[in-house]
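Researcher: Going back to the complex we discussed earlier. I've cleaned up the inputs and rechecked each line, so this should be the final set. Can you rerun the prediction on the complete assembly and write out the structure?
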Amino acid sequence: MEVRPDPEATAPELDPVPEVDIAAIEAAALVPSISEIAEVEETRGLLLSAHGVMKRFGGLVAVHDINFDIPEGSIVSLIGPNGAGKTTFFNIIAGIYDPTGGRIAIRGRTMVARPIRPWLEPVLWVAPAAIVGILTALVIVPTGSEVLEFIGAALGLGLLILMLLAAIARPDWYQHLLLRLGIFRSARPNDIVRAGIGRTFQNIRLFQNMTALENVLVGMHIKLKANMFDAMFSTPRNRREEIESRAKAEELLTLVGLTGVGGEIAKNLPYGDQRRLEVARALASGPSLLLLDEPTAGMNPRETSDMMALINKLRKDLGLTVLLIEHDMKVVMGISDRVTVLDHGERIAEGSPEEVRHDPKVIEAYLGTPAS
Amino acid sequence: MSGRLQAIRGGGMGGLRASLRTFSGHHRSLTIIGGMAIVGAVLPILAVLPPLSVFQGQNVWVNGFANAGVFVLLAIGLNIVVGLAGLLDLGYAAFFAIGAYTYAYAASPYSGQHLPFLPMLLVGAFVAATFGVLLGAPTLRLRGDYLAIVTLGFGEIVPIVFLNANQYTNGTNGIGGIYKPEIPGIEFSLLNPWPFYVLMLVLVTTSMLLIYRLQESRVGRAWMAIREDELAAASNGINTVTTKLLAFALGASTAGFAGVFQASKLTSVDPGQFQSTVSFSILVMVVLGGMGNIWGVALGAFVVYTIQVVLLKQLNSFFESLNVPILSDINFVTYQFLLLGLALVFMMLFRPEGLFPSQRRRRELHSADTAAAEADSAAALAETV
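Model: Rerun complete. Updated structure for the full complex:
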């Protein structure tokens, strides 16, 4: 049997991960209290503000104590070497991961944080029905009135169904009720979209077998009102909405430079166009903040400059705020107002592109320490 | 290339076909109603013409067609769950059973009730939908194989509950003497299959129309998005929980619909009618017909049911009457699942997208071909450069 050399042993020492004391980090992690979450802070022109965000995967601290603000109308970039925690941070904002510590407020309202007493939520679903049931059993049954018994049972069942539906749709009153009872559930990805944040993915995640137009129409989901019955009975509202939404989708395709490809299957589009289509789909929900995860990855120089022009246009024409993860320094330095640099999950620098470029810590993170 | 070939092959028919296609593209609802009307008119005529008339009389055929309609309904309902939303449901017959038993309780001497048929269609659908949500809610986190296993379990549990809850369901014997549909002006009887046939046509057409419209709407797009990429769908604002539950509920309600009709037509229900083989048969119909395409699925259900239940039985008596040495000894009905299995294997090998696939499915399953074509064109490009 061939003995293979252990790659770990022979590999040259590559930038060792600094020893982290997870217990200490965990202890220091800012886990917000329910009163902090319930409080609506003043926005000071900030669209999004992250306070001490931390995410731990098992023994790996992917993001550690990040404070991060996105002022309205700006283009903010997040850079850092591979594995620095950029995409993790992104996914926390987008509601895909619950953070281990810290919180993220969108327009002053905390939407993402570590859940507080999530186990109490199912109790809340059952409690009203249970109370009605017990009252019915104790008070009404002895009276022997069948009508009242029926009303009691129906009320109990109705309350149970109502609470379960509320748990699925999470309307505002339900959220307030949760907060009042000291329960906090972090927002789901679809709640984040409703709060006005659209995103693209690092590895393109289009709906591959749907047409470009259909992709944009799916992106428009929260804007459209037609429900199941509108569609089934083809109500005027549904027909009008379908026509309008199609026109709007064509417009968005034109905006990102994909005029006339609406009928193409997404996976048959060239790579650069797929990236553009993802942007169009993210724009379709009418966001005020657009999260772009490496929008120019794998693009040639011309496609890259087109994408930069597009991002600039989005800010100018639509007044969008953009958070950008990017590796291409030309892009980052060219269009960002502020740049934040992450390394090993920590924020090592923050400032204007010019300041960051000359920051010794940043140079070290990217190029290593100079040989002495 | 293939497009050009097709155009040549189409010849004179090409123009007609193209204009038909544009017509159906613009008037989809009309196409479904018209198409079903034509199918409904042609089937009884076919039954008196040679190949079919050899086997059995027209009335027997029409009766068989009405029964096949039940499975067409089931297949287009399952198509919502499996074909559109991409949730593999192996226990679909459970909802069929729930619909059937709902009507059995509502209109039979066993329960002493006699509620009218037409409203009960909706009630049966609603009850089945409720159970669809009840099954769907706890399984939403599951995907693929795991979901299939849970639904399979549900499909087993429901008939067993009906079997063992003797006191309420009359166990193995089931509930008999269920009242036939009562619609003013039309008389339903066991001897005359025509009213059932027409009623079935109306039910299938209505369901197809509603489901088709749904499929082309915001809701249908959300289902497809979830099937394609659940995370991306959620990140585009789709509430995956409600959307999946809706698929389960609508699929189940179609089965409930079919169940009420079945109970009223057969006038008896028993747990044996809703075994897991029924679930599998429906799934096979959906797969063979072409997942995602409502016409394909309906046709798949019709063909599979007719072969399974009518043709194989007739084949037996046909060969017996001819007295062919070996063939007359074979009982084809016992081999129905073998034949179905073989058909499925060949289908997966040669035409995995089904007989009449949706455009989308075809793309999905032939991505290798398109990739090859792209490689070809890339090579050609390289040569020219």
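Model: Worth noting: The radius of gyration of chain B is 23 Å.
Researcher: Good, that matches what I expected from the previous run.
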